[in-house]
Write a structure and sequence with these properties.
Structural class: alpha+beta
Order of helices and strands: HHHEHEEHEEEEHEHHEEHEEEEH
Number of helices: 10
Strand order of the largest sheet: 1-2-3-7-6-5-4
Pfam families: DUF7373, DUF7373_C
Radius of gyration: 22 Å
Shape: globular
Domain DUF7373: 59-254, 259-401
InterPro entries: DUF7373, DUF7373_C
Largest sheet: 7 strands, antiparallel
Distance between the termini: 42 Å
Length: 407
């Protein structure tokens, strides 16, 4: 997958950088009693020129919309890195979209398929990428990637494994309990050892890559054991995925319970340059697009989050209004090392906002941000500057409150 440009990265930071840096659990005593703020008077808040009325999401359908929805369905049925091994808690690459298609195909370390993936894997339909690291710096610990690829049929899936595994001959490896899996070990130009594993289930291919830049001497056995656990877990969870026929992708619903229509859409400044990731992500899929899924999972559990709508902002559906307030209190700890609290938008009491202190180190994953709640929904909003942030926050609140008398 290719990195996005800076504009898109900042726009997607809210989608994919949900890092909750807490002392203790994500629902600790410091905010377990957070109370939902009172409803706001929308006539007194300034939303600038941003949209404040829901749109018909079906009118925004593109050729790729169905592929994104099917990819999300796959993502909701595959394990997180922490589901396989609790040590892989970091995902600093989270700003990259997880949807895999022929236009946004996967890339792999040390096996030379990036430039000709479509030629090596004809019949590839759609997939989902999962990432995990032992350390925030990938050069300081193992990196754990898992991709699920769907093909038109089992024959194309098998051919893709033969083609990809044969591009760069490596040292063969075996995975305990899975004699039919294809595995090899390669060494990159930076002297990292890479175990790549291909495992087929009908028309699905599960690819595991474990990159080890530090072990001296290198021993493939621990990586093979992790790969076995990954296949075990994937085999159990992927059974929940029921494939949508390819000719039905165009009829997959784009919205769920009108959540996406009430999420601030992308505009010309925030529209992604690659595959548009907007959609409604069920809980498991939503956890995949976080920087620290271990901590966010605890916050989701506490608040009863079941869906996250993703566009230029993102909206969480929680158990109730009190749970939404607790979730905001947890997520407001995000980027605690680089964020400083600032005043909220005018006439929006209870809204929590942050930016990086002037003169401090710049972290593009932590642009100015605000958190707002409405009823059982919590929203997180990013922008390039504070004035725009305030207007975007007001617009997001109006979208959530739209159609409710007196709001």
């Amino acid at each position: 997958m290719n990195p996005l440009n800076r504009v898109t990265r900042v726009a997607l930071a809210g989608i994919t950088a949900v890092t909750v840096l807490l002392t203790g659990t994500a629902c600790g005593d410091d905010h377990k009693d957070a109370a939902a703020p009172p409803a706001l008077d929308i006539s007194k808040i300034d939303s600038g020129n941003f949209p404040v009325a829901p749109v018909d999401i079906e009118k925004t359908r593109t050729e790729s919309s169905g592929y994104v929805r099917e990819s999300i369905r796959i993502g909701n049925a595959v394990p997180l890195a922490i589901d396989v091994d609790s040590k892989y808690v970091f995902d600093p690459k989270a700003y990259i979209t997880r949807t895999l298609t022929v236009k946004s195909h996967p890339s792999y370390t040390g096996i030379g398929v990036d430039d000709n993936f479509n030629a090596l894997a004809p019949g590839f339909v759609v997939g989902w990428a999962t990432l995990g690291q032992r350390r925030t710096d990938p050069t300081m610990g193992r990196v754990f990637d898992m991709d699920t690829l769907r093909f038109t049929d089992a024959d194309h899936a098998a051919a893709a494994i033969r083609n990809m595994s044969g591009v760069v001959p490596g040292r063969p490896a075996t995975i305990p309990g899975y004699p039919t899996a294809t595995a090899n070990v390669t060494t990159t130009i930076l002297d990292s050892n890479v175990l790549t594993v291909w495992y087929q289930r009908n028309d699905l291919v599960f690819i595991v890559q474990l990159i080890d830049p530090i072990s001296i001497p290198f021993d493939v056995a621990p990586l093979a054991d992790i790969s076995k656990k990954a296949i075990d877990k994937w085999d159990a969870t992927i059974a929940a995925y029921t494939e949508t026929p390819l000719d039905k992708f165009g009829s997959l619903p784009l919205d769920t319970d009108e959540m996406l229509s009430r999420t601030l859409p992308f505009d010309k400044n925030t529209k992604p340059s690659g595959v548009d990731p907007q959609g409604v992500y069920p809980r498991q899929a939503a956890l995949h697009i976080t920087n620290r899924p271990d901590l966010v999972k605890a916050a989701f559990d506490d608040a009863g989050v079941d869906s996250v709508a993703v566009a230029s902002t993102y909206v969480y559906r929680t158990r109730d209004a009190a749970a939404a307030a607790r979730l905001v209190a947890a997520l407001a700890k995000e980027h605690d090392d680089v964020w400083a609290p600032i005043d909220g938008p005018p006439n929006m009491p209870g809204v929590r906002c942050f930016k990086q202190p002037q003169g401090g180190d710049t972290d593009w994953t932590a642009p100015p941000a605000c958190f707002v709640t409405y009823d059982r929904f919590a929203a997180k909003i990013y922008a390039f500057n504070v004035q725009e942030l305030y207007q975007r926050t007001a617009a997001q609140y109006k979208l959530l409150a739209y159609g409710h008398p007196g709001k």
